[in-house]
Amino acid sequence: MILTDSHSHLDMYSDELPEVLGRAHTAGVGTILAIGIGDGPEEMQRALEIVAEYSGRTDVPTLYASAGIHPQEAHRADANVLNKLARLVDDERVIAVGEIGLDYYHVDNPEPAVQRATFVAQMQIAARARKPILIHCRTSDLAKPEAKQKFAEADAWADLLELLDAHWKDCGLGGILHCFSGSLDQARRSLELGFYLSFAGNLTYPKAVALREAAAFAPADRLLIETDAPFLAPVPLRGQRNESAFIAHTAGCMATVRGISVEEVATITSTNFQRLFPTTGPGKSVSSV
Fold first, then answer.
1. Residues 6+ away with beta carbon under 8 Å from 207
2. How far is CA 16 from CA 46, 141, 169, 223, in A?
3. What's the gap between Cα 230 and its chain centre?
4. CB within 8 A of 30, min separation 6: which ones?
5. Of 9, 177, 161, 211, which is closest to residue 100 (Cα–Cα)?
6. Kind and range of the H or E run holding 249
7. What is the helix (H) or strand (E) element at residue 276, kind and residue range?
8. 124: phi then psi, degrees, rounded to nearest 5
9. What is the CATH number of domain 3-280?
């Protein structure tokens, strides 16, 4: 059984990364997509640096990178930062642009108009490079009162879907709704726009009934799993620092939700990842470039 972690922040492990990758390999994780947002735009190359550092090794999963400007950093997306992103995306080891999108959860996040502009600019970069995008969408529904007040008139999902329809759908590249947390209607509309739905460790949480409904609803050929490590460790490890080795618990929950085996979940989600990112298929790895 070979598992694929479609979203992990490997740059957050510092000196422990060799052990984290070793445990992932032992746990049957064959591929990890390292997310290249860093701790702000000045570090969004870190994922690519990690891919280069571990290139060619057989004792760790095969690694790929993304690069992008998180919506919390949207106000920093000046011409120099966008040019840096475009240069990173030109590297064939960077297989996606992300995570990008909208976040109306924290009161100190940039204004919606700023986030939307940066999102559109990054979609344009991705379209030129012919690479899929990784979407982050967080609403203010569960935010603190001051954030709810700031973003009261804005709906992150409505804005996101409108922007994707206007600026992304026609390019035919698709992408991933990372850590999907929307409704069944939002799942349906995302699928219609050509996206895959990726489910993280919170799929296993007792109160996540709506997530499990979405995971059951999605077509088999549009499902992915992820850790979003070091965040969202699955049950029974909830509260610990997450890592790619723990993804088997999310796969097990997905298997239960869909009434199939864990092995089938591993095969389906790994195949889907390779379909979305053809250069990651058997014999087509670019991590040694």
1. none
2. 15, 35, 40, 30
3. 13
4. 2, 3, 4, 61, 62, 270
5. 177
6. helix 247-258
7. helix 262-276
8. -65, -40
9. 3.20.20.140
Q: What is the pTM of this model?
A: 0.95
Q: What is the mean pLDDT of residues 231-243?
A: 97
Half-sphere CA count of 5, side-chain side, radius 13 A:
35
> Which uninterrupted H or E stretch holds 264?
helix 262-276
pLDDT per residue as tens digits for the range 4-44: 999 999 999 988 999 999 999 999 999 999 999 999 999 99
Burial of 287 (0-12, 13-18, 19+ CB in 10 A): buried
Q: How far apart are CA 112 and CA 131, in angstroms?
A: 25
Instruction: Pull the structure tokens for residue 278.
Output: 């053809």
pLDDT in tens, 254-287: 999 999 999 999 999 999 999 999 999 876 655 4
User: What CA–CA distances, in Å, run from 154 to 144, 150, 159?
Assistant: 15, 9, 8
Q: Is the peptide bond before 236 cis (omega within 30 degrees of 0)?
A: yes
Q: What is the mean pLDDT of the chain?
A: 95
State pLDDT tens for residues 144-170.
Answer: 687 777 887 788 999 999 999 999 999
Q: What are phi and psi of 135, to 5 degrees?
A: -100, 130
Tell me, what's the pLDDT at 154? 82
- Quote the tokens at residue 126: 């991705």
Question: Tokens representing 185?
Answer: 């209607």
Distance CA 219, CA 231 (A): 26
Domain range annotation of the chain? 3-280
